[in-house]
Amino acid sequence: MAPNQSVQRWMYERMLESRYFDEAIFAAYFEGKVPVFNMAKGPVPGEMHQSFGQEPCAVGVVAQLGPDDVVGAAHRPHHVAIARGVNLERMAAEVFGKKTGLSGGRGGHMHLYDNSVNFFCSGIIAEGLGPAAGMALARKVQNLPGIAVSYIGEAAANQGAFHEVMNMASLWKLPFICVIEDNKYGVSVPKRVSTAVERSPNRGAAYGCFGEYVEGNDPDKIYAAAATAIAHARAGEGPTILELETERLHGHFIGDPAGYRPEAERSAQQDPIPGYRRRLLDAGALNETSAAALEAAVKQRVAAAIHFARDSAYPEPAEALDRLYA
Amino acid sequence: MAAPPNASTAGQSDRILTMARAGREAVISEMRNDSKVFVIGEDVGKLGGIFGTAVGVQEEFGTWRAIDTPISETGFIGIACGAAMAGMRPVVELAYVDFFGVCFNQIYNFAAKTHYMSGGQYKMPMTMMIGVGGGYNNAAQHSQTVYGTFAHMPGIKIAVPSNAYDAKGLMHSCIQDDNLTLWMVHKATCGLGWLGAPLKTAMAVVPETDYLIPFGEARVWREGTDVTLVGLGLTVHHCVQAADLLAVDGVSAEVIDLRTLVPLDRETIFNSVSKTGRLVVVDEDYLSFGVTGEIIASISERDPRVWKSPPRRVAYPDVPVPFSRPLENFCMPDAHKVVAAVKSIMAPP
Q1: pTM score above 0.90
Q2: Domain range for residue B224?
Q3: How far apart are CA B233 and CA A52, in angstroms?
């Protein structure tokens, strides 16, 4: 199923929002980290995994989800969170460690939670798969509407949790989709070095579930494949392993120069956003004027969120001791 | 609060249950009261759980409320976490605590931290039923208690019942709690068909009605003036037996049953030691870096003047649990080791 122009505009807008957000965080990240790079310094401390290049994976799937559905993301969550509609100001504030952040600064960028839009994260590889499947189970056994979508990277399919969860999700026909963002590298290790099968959807044969691989890092193609997976899930036909070819345009984290990647490979990488913009212009979904207006509006929204984060107060230090228990 | 009524003090109409039966009664009652409660884990269906706490549950509630899982602890604990975050109240059977080795990430990095990391947005109302302990020659991978390992991790509440009355009340409290709770029961106390006759002092009069035993309230099984004996789970019974033996020699021992390890009732322990001035902590977990040291440290931090004698620890030596009977018996805490520890700190007459 192809997305209509309204959906295409939405996907473009959300990809841009993620991109602008990452650009703004990238700039803020280096404050206090020059000339000596120290991850612990500056207004945005800690490890920072950004989504440059992977934006299509989020929008193509999440565009088709409703409020009853749930989305779990991993350690590289910005594009997924933004596609899901997580409050951008509170998300930015969380990344800055502020009191107004989604978790009051307890989580940080790898642990973004927004219960109001059924969104959660998990910083450890493949750890969020089981919980997402459990949210699918809760919907199924209570006859509640909704499906669960769990985002992992291609390297996470080598975790034992992947095998265990896909087996049970398929056995119990859970309304569940495992989205694998195949950016071809687990930190520094290429997929061909770590993984015996070229494409993880082929592992679906081991679990008796659906599997599909989508080439091209193309929001429209992802949308079409996700539509099928979502239909299977909503119809009670069981889970899908949906692997999406994508590109990690930067290193694993800011500060990783990715010197382990061959130069030819890096120079062949394509940024998916300009091409998508051209497509929408060619198809008449946008014109230069409407595109510029949309881009300015998104830029403004992101700037406001960063401003909100910078302006917000830090939590009181002793708040560290709160919220351990419900 | 004294020892729970048991066979020796029970009236004719009193029901005396094993811990497994008592725990199971709480599970079933919670399931009848709340359709969001369900049991999940290995062998919880037809078998009713390896420790019998889910017997008859699948028969009464069906396969979706007593979900038999594959041997995939990381997977089904993760799934239970998600169900809990979605508002259900899973009761997860981990069976032997030793199996935490294959799934600890999902427990301590996810279940225990999600409420905190989400700033309270996601609750984790999940209970794990776990069998612990040795003394039955099942060797190093099926005999540990590892209480301290779990207690060390913030975000987990831990109930360690020593008897059937507490087993039921604590199970109710676990399931009704909005946090990750562990219900850790020692195999030697719980009354299993495959472990001989149940320990008499662990069986107790159990009311048919529901009742809660709160977290963080220890029980003084027996009052005394000369020394405080602190135990949890099976070691409470070692302490009680030791107190009987000590009484013959004119030593008055006070016995404290922790009942919940986290939160820990430091107040009750401190008050007792303030009175007796002497303490022996008895734990089946490994000696070092564990429960025994934590208890002693917390007393000393509060007021080192309470000590009339150095505190003592009776715990498992820092080796894996051996298989052979004489080897294991050498390592296991028991009443005689408790008596010896007490005598070592009582002033000579």
Answers
A1: yes
A2: 219-345
A3: 54
ipTM: 0.96
Strands A210-214 and A240-245: parallel
* Domain boundary residue, one of B165, B183, B205: B205
Between CA A320 and CA A322, with CA A321 as vertex, the angle to 5 degrees is 95
Full DSSP string of B150-181: HHTSTT-EEE---SHHHHHHHHHHHHHSSS-E
B140 and B73 in a single domain? The answer is yes
Q: Could you tell me if residue B98 is inside a domain? A: yes
B108 and B73 in a common domain: yes
- B172 catalytic per annotation: no
Which residue among B78, B119, B125 places its CB closest to the CB of A104? Answer: B119
Write out chain A residues lying below 8 Å of B79, CB-based. 130-131, 133-134, 137, 165, 168
Inform me whether the C-beta atom of residue A158 falls under 8 Å from chain B C-beta atoms: no
Contact A237, A19 (CB under 8 A): no
Mean pLDDT, to the nearest integer, of A89-114? 98
The 3-state DSSP class for residue A243 equals strand
Asked whether the predicted pLDDT for residue B8 surpasses 80, the reply is: no
CATH of the domain at B55: 3.40.50.970
| Residue in the block written with tokens 């460690």 | A97
B202 touches chain A (CB under 8 A): no
**Residue-averaged pLDDT of chain A:** 97
B88, B109, B121: residue with CB nearest A138: B88
Report how many domains make up chain B. 2
| Residues B177 and B278 placed together within one structural domain of the fold | no
Residue of A nearest to B88 (CA): A138
Q: What is the pairing mode between strands B204-205 and B16-17?
A: antiparallel
On whether both B50 and B191 belong to a single domain, the answer is yes
Residue pair A249/A219 in contact by the 8 Å Cβ criterion: no
Residue B349: what pLDDT? Answer: 55
State the Cα–Cα distance between residues B227 and B272, nearest whole angstrom.
Answer: 9
Element (H, E) at B294: helix B291-302
Structural domains for chain A: 5-18+54-313 (3.40.50.970)
- Helix B164-176 and helix B19-33: axis angle, to 10°? 30
Among candidate residues B142, B172, B186, B237, the one labeled active-site is: B142
